[in-house]
Design a protein that fits this description.
The complex is a heterodimer of chains A (267) and B (303). Chain A is mostly helical. Chain A is built from 12 helices and no strands. In chain A, helix 1 runs antiparallel to helix 5, helix 5 runs antiparallel to helix 10 (187-210) and helix 9 (163-184) packs across helix 10. The longest helix of chain A has 38 residues, at 3-40. Chain A is globular, with a radius of gyration of 20 Å. Chain A starts with a helix and ends in a 5-residue tail after the last helix. Chain B has 2 domains: 2-215, Rossmann fold (3-Layer(aba) Sandwich); 218-301, 2-Layer Sandwich (Alpha-Beta Plaits). Chain B has 11 helices and 14 strands. A 6-stranded mixed sheet of chain B has the order 6-7-8-3-9-10, with helices on both faces. In chain B, strands 2-1-4-5 form a 4-stranded antiparallel sheet. In chain B, helix 3 runs parallel beside helix 5. The two termini of chain B are 43 Å apart. The chains are: A mainly alpha (267), B alpha/beta (303).
Chain lengths: 267, 303
Amino acid sequence: MSWIVLRLELRRSRSLVLWTAVVVAAYGAFIAGFYPIIRDNTKLLDDYMKVFPKALLAGFGMEGSLSDHGVFFNTYFSSMLWPVVAAMVGAILGTRTVAADLDRGFVELPLSTRIDRVRYLAASIWGQLVALAIVALAAIAGTLAVGAIVGAGFDAGRFLLVVPLLIGFGCAISAVAMLLSVVTLNRGISAGIVAGGLILMYLLDIVSKLAPDLAWLGTVSAFHYLGTIAAIDEGIVPLEGMAVFAAVAVIAWTASLWGFRRRDLVA
Amino acid sequence: MLAIECRGLTRWYGRRRGISDVTLEVGEGEVFGFLGPNGAGKTTTIRMLMGFLRPTSGSATVFGRDCWRDAATAHRDVAYVASEPGYLGNLPAADQLDYLARLRGLERRAWRPLAERLELDPTVQIRRLSRGNRQKVGVIAVFMGTERLLIMDEPTSGLDPVMQREFLTLVAEARAAGRTIFLSSHNLPEVERGCDRVGIVREGRLVDVTSVPELLASHWRAVNLVLNTLPTAAAFDLPNVRILSVDGRVVHLMVQGEINPLLRRLAELDIRDVSIATPDIEDVFLGFYTETPELAMSAGATR
């Protein structure tokens, strides 16, 4: 890993990370701000929710009462905004170093120096990890800060438990995007496959919750492992999800490093 | 030790030819020009020398190190500039050059004397620079270090004549310092003035490698005569002379190589006017891309 490359990678990610962090922090603050309304009208909302089939609500992350902190956060953030944000940041950063930089001719500059390809790409991977961590922490920080102001009673320790899960989800996307960019050397194709794959997995997750016979389909969906309810409501460390995302990220990044060493750099 | 050594270097892009069976040696301290039209395979060759592309067959080494397998190690001795370097548009030239300097183990601001010499404002973002100024960034980047080999892919395209001359001065200084230069160029006078030897690549094959003076000497010169009397049929009957046209007392000849035999014949004639056009490298270059070299020379002689 090269500090010089990492510093430039972080500098290049500055605008993306800053504005995404501001947006997710503001969104976290916004949902935390209206949480007391939900808490104070729990019975009303629970009665309203009874109108919908239980499976349908589960499909959209509402597995319990919305006044529960975990269900609330899962419904409004983990299963809604975070997948979109993580996909966007992950796809942009994951495809930038190889496919996009090859297309603009930048990658030839550092790789014409004494730095080898593995060290170069490793620095980029660390850059992705740092960027996603900042964005995830910003979301939780916004939620907790405003939650504290409005007296939501959020447990900071339990909310922080989900941070590694959120980062892991983003890293898995970023790593797969990077692997695809090493294989295809094309940013559009790589990002398209990532987006299509995520939409497919989202649908599979919903179908698996709607149809008990097809519950097994959920196990191949990343969204199945992104549940944050148990962590926030019961303080259970989301080990399974973290392990799955970490495994996907490590395998995809390792394959990227291996592939990049052998790849012709032709746009 | 050879700075560059290619043995049967071949690269195919699927069914499309890149280069084929290029065998080439560039000695240390030499300035080597690499000439060819667009699509001839110059950039493909350079990309293999830089380890960006894997050869389909054959090998390329830089100071004895394999360009593909030991690319990063080989790059310790190499500075490189692409024909259109993909700088990050948002970065000022200074930051871009600092980044490259640090990756190459140089001091930050190692580029500053060259930036002043080439009159580049380093505070301007790359995307706001003109094409010529962006090209200056590449020239500065390649010359700012102390690497033993400089590989340049059309580094002067976009530079104004003053800067092109400054570039040739930099080349001369680098040569004087014992550095080796591999220069791909379309700028033929630049190659003629700056290089010790040239390699000419055509349709992916290296068709000639020779010194610039030898290259010029082995090709055709145009000799145009206006005589006071009509010439005899055998007046120009020499093995290295071709008669292009005889129109009364106006004669157009082509001579290849040694010119003294023809001059001795001309001394016997009553000549009103004579002109001998020495080929510049452009004529020679064009000669490789036409079926009859003398036609290319003939065209050059009338310019």
